[in-house]
TrEMBL record:
Coiled coil: none annotated. It comes from the Bacteria. This is Thioredoxin-like fold domain-containing protein. The keyword Zinc does not apply. It comes from Niastella yeongjuensis.
Amino acid sequence: MLNIKHLLLFVILCFSIKIRAQNSEKGIKWILELSLEQVKAKALKENKYIFLDCFTTWCGPCKQMDNLIYNNDSVGSFFNDHFLSVKVQMDKTDNDNEQVKRWYEDVDTLKKKYYVDMYPTYIFLSPQGIVLHKDVGFKNTQNFISLGSLAMQPGRKYDDPNKDYEILLARYKQGDIAYDRLPYMVRCTDANRDMDLWRQLIKVHLDYVCKLPPNLRYTQENIKFWASLPLNTGSRLFNFFYVDGNLIDNVMARKGFSRNVIDIAIMNEIIRPFLVEQAAGSGVTMTGGYLTTVSPTGKTAKLQEADWRKLENMLTKKFNTDCARRNVLAAKVEWYERHENKAASARYFLFMINKYPPDLTVDLKSTVLSAINNRAYDAFLFSTDKKILEGYLPWMKKVLVIFAEYIDAGLIDTYACLLYKTGRSEDAIKWMEKAVALVPVHTVKNSFDVKLEEMKRGKRLSEAVVWK
């Protein structure tokens, strides 16, 4: 049960393990072993449309689409009837199989032809191989099916938003700069991987906006553009978010928007190298992908501590006290997670979200909610601290409310287990019965059944590594 549960729900945004299912008993049936040209030939012969799921191995929303949308029966029925569907891995890793490698050249073509620079990107082609529609980001079931329907509308023509790039670039080279289109040009240049021009355009843009008054500088378009760029903590871009964070949050109508951008930059530039240094020689990897399973014994992978005072001193020299302490919490969550000290990572994650509540209204809320679920389940498995266990209950209630459209048995299972371990047996049984009813017999129902029977008998849940 544990391995399957974490495979389905382990989708924290920074995680980079490739856990995408290529085919399953339900949902979309993916075309395997064919090149792009072979897929086009097959589509023409069968008079079917083509759907390309452009993903990366590190993309959280991509994993959400796999786990919540692509395996949906309604989605599968619609897309299998009308489309040849292909997963296209857009990044390269050391673990790429031969089929992924055979698509490397096609991937380069797709990036340049369709300016693919956000993930997931969905590309819909006609049976003749003509692009009909393109979209990005996590979609719920209804919206995703609507994308496919839109692509199939009779007479559908794709209005390429990148068609102006070559014209604007020619003007730019002549010294005629369309300053309001520079963010657009940067995105196109990034998709083309012309990094020298990319850096040049960003500098021109920053030189321009720094001369503007705040009300013209801090527009939603500019802010979204800046947030999409890699930031270092000494840059002008970083200072926009650090110094004028409240103003930016107001413009975006999202409290904590600037904080999230700041913290990502600090994690990449300061915290990650610090953790690597502290873990040197331990054999514990502090970069790259996570394991998708939890140690069955629950033992930690090395019990040494990082020098947290050193990290806090490093951060307070550059940032205010609140920022420093917030990022030390994030560092502790990362450290203990990678050392498989699940009780500690769950504890500090709860401290962090209580002190600095995440924004659950954004597009990536599904990733945030799944992260909460995973930590809550770790607390059930590995913690005996009743305050921690009870602390996750209101958060899991929020997860269930916001994730209600997916009716996910795994989420309900987490909530039921927390209720039971905190002594709320009657409520736990009611919720576990809901989980059992949702899971088909041929998947993981037996595991849920075992826990339900243990609850009814008043027994310790055998799946928990520690109890009381």
